[in-house]
């Protein structure tokens, strides 16, 4: 997954947005960055400049 090749696999949809709503006919578990973040329906909002990433040498 770290190479990004998973986004071209069948059944994978890739979207960009500041606010995304995910719905389904029946509840599904939603994962964000490998962690369970809830289940559908869910709204996800990106907040700019709120995540600090540190890079080691």
From TrEMBL:
Pfam families registered for this protein in UniProt: YegS_C (PF19279)
Limits of the YegS/DAGK C-terminal domain: 1-54
InterPro entries: NAD/diacylglycerol_kinase_sf, YegS/DAGK_C
Protein name as catalogued: YegS/DAGK C-terminal domain-containing protein
Source domain of life: Bacteria
């Amino acid at each position: 997954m770290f190479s990004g090749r998973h986004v071209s696999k069948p059944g994978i949809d890739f979207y960009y947005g500041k606010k995304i709503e995910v719905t389904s006919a029946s509840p599904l578990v939603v994962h964000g960055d490998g962690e369970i973040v809830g289940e559908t329906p869910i709204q996800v909002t990106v907040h700019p400049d709120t995540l600090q990433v540190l890079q080691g040498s």
